[in-house]
Amino acid sequence: MSRRKTERLLNLVICLLATRRPLSAEQIRQAVPGYDRDGDEAFQRMFERDKNELREIGIPIDVVRDPWEDEPGYRIERQSYELPEITLEADEAAVLGLAAQVWQRASLAEAASGALLKLRAGGVATDPAGGGALELRVDTRDPAFPALWDAVRDRRVVRFDYRSAGSENVRTRTVEPWGVVSRRGRWYLAGFDRDRDAPRAFRLSRIIGQVAAVGRPGVVEVPPGVDVREMIGFPEEPMEERVATLRVRQGAGEGLRQLASVTRAGGGGWDEVELGFSDPERLAGWIASMGSDVELLDPPDAREAVIRRLKGALA
Amino acid sequence: MSGSADRLPRLLALVPYLMSHPGAQVGEVAEVFGLSEKQLIDDLQLVWMCGLPGHTPGDLIDVSWDGGEIVIDNADTIARPLRLGIDEASALLVALRMLGAMPEFAEVPGDALPRVVAKLERAAGEGAAAVSSQVAVDVDAAPDALPRVRDALNRKRRLSLRYYVPGRDEVTPREVDPTRVMVVDGRTYMEGWCYRAEAMRLFRLDRVVGVDVLDVPADPPADAEPIDVTQGVFRPSPTDELVELEVSAAGRWVAEYYPVEGVTELGEGRLRIALRARDEDWVLKLALRLGDTGRVVAPEAMAERVREEAERALALYAHRS
């Protein structure tokens, strides 16, 4: 933005804030330096662009249509422009300082520091250093995150290519976004999948390419009672219904021993261990990773799954 | 906020800042706004050209910075900052709600947290409250070890840890002087000086198998540098060995789960993944776990080690199948 334009916009903001009654475009043209030299059409275009730019940075411009006038009038209402008076107690400032340093990536980190700067400009004592011995960080590393944040904020339908877990196929999904949730370092989108005609959750890391906004803002309605966190579920903690018996080399398999329900000393440098599990494939992956330190004895389906993996690693 | 596109929002914050901090120093204000002193003075010169319609000297904003002390006058129209935008308020509110889910903050006396949330919601428009309830960061339940770690931090005591290292599948005893507790992406970590490694280390608290507070004052070396987690908790060292894997669609989780150096699509959902490995045992375990859904492509010696270990393990099963 050129210096002249910044000057013009600042003068425009001051002019629209200072006026008691709405000003017509022509009155604004007379009052604000920088508009005066151009022809009618050039001025109209410039004024339209300037209004849009002010709205983009969050300045509310009222358009007042008086039935007795041909032209609409413009002004900025002080009450909707100004940051309300806020004071923060010391403990509140400390908590806010902690919250402001949470975000790790550009978009939200800048939004948080911009908010803090406005509060400081308004005379609020903030505590930018944060809380000393405690630190909080959240990373929004997925490239899809900024577009989904915008879509949730603007209540806009999105479309993206998505590869389901372990699937070879990429499908295009059209989703009404209800929310985004971070759980254990991963971001998920919860929403209504228009193709499946059902609520679904998506992992952001499995979105391929760009997230496109579809249609108009304000379309998406989050149904009452929807809990986006609940929709993500707890896929990593199924019930342990079955019991496996394993042989573990003495001095090895520490992690497994920590979770074992029963451990018996066996002969020849081996211990026998019992372990609860639910998914034989998950268990087999873990046991295979321990190689020749562990043998899964029972049940047979899990044992076969280990053998299959080991043969696969051999190939 | 030093780019020219951000200049107008910056000026609209700068003027109120100067009004509410009369006599502020050029250097101090430049730092608050992330500007050089030269940039700040350029901003002040621009502000000085602006003012009420009419633009007679009496209408213009009056700014001076004699002797480095900034005095501003005649800027009542923009004396208050612009209210918080939806993104600005939401970024803070989502973070505050995350704090609210943490047990440490449930215990803060006087409810500072809900008070701040209420004040911010009032300072922003309606939209912000709605967005911030749709974006959530879950925090894992506080690990059992946390109360003792915090106790040691508060009383500046050394800790005796039994710490599980999954890459080596070992529980190792360590003495650690704790320096910080960090919650990163919902998981709780302790930073401290580890006497076993003789270095600053991060410990994931859910991997602490046992912890005792020792009756020894914590005494980390004065020159111990805090660990920079701004680029993630696990940052492979560039000196770690580069390993290449090929995985099928069923093995793509590897690229989602671990920090990778590079990923190439090979078609039909297959991927070639390059990553830096802290130690060979970790790669071995990963390759065995993947089974037929992935294999080590390079280095060849690593691929050979995987085959040897798979063979040894299969021998266990052979004598009883």
From TrEMBL, chain A:
This protein's UniProt keywords: DNA-binding
Ranges where the WYL domain occurs: 144-207
InterPro entries: CBASS_pafABC_assoc_protein (IPR051534), WCX_dom (IPR057727), WYL_dom (IPR026881)
Top-level taxon of the source organism: Bacteria
Start and end residues of each WCX domain: 243-314
Residue intervals passing through the bilayer: none
One Gene Ontology molecular-function label: DNA binding
PANTHER family from the UniProt entry: PROTEIN PAFB, PTHR34580
Protein name: Putative DNA-binding transcriptional regulator YafY
Protein source organism: Nonomuraea endophytica
TrEMBL record, chain B:
Record carries keyword Transmembrane helix: no
Keywords: Proteasome
PROSITE patterns referenced in this protein's UniProt entry, alphabetically: WYL (PS52050)
Organism expressing this protein natively: Nonomuraea endophytica
Domain PafC HTH: 6-122
Boundaries of every WYL domain copy: 145-212
Any one Gene Ontology cellular component term annotated for this protein: proteasome complex
UniProt KW Cell membrane keyword: no
Highest taxon, organism lineage: Bacteria
Protein name: Proteasome accessory factor C
UniProt xrefs under InterPro entries: CBASS_pafABC_assoc_protein (IPR051534), PafC-like (IPR028349), PafC_HTH (IPR043839), WCX_dom (IPR057727), WYL_dom (IPR026881)
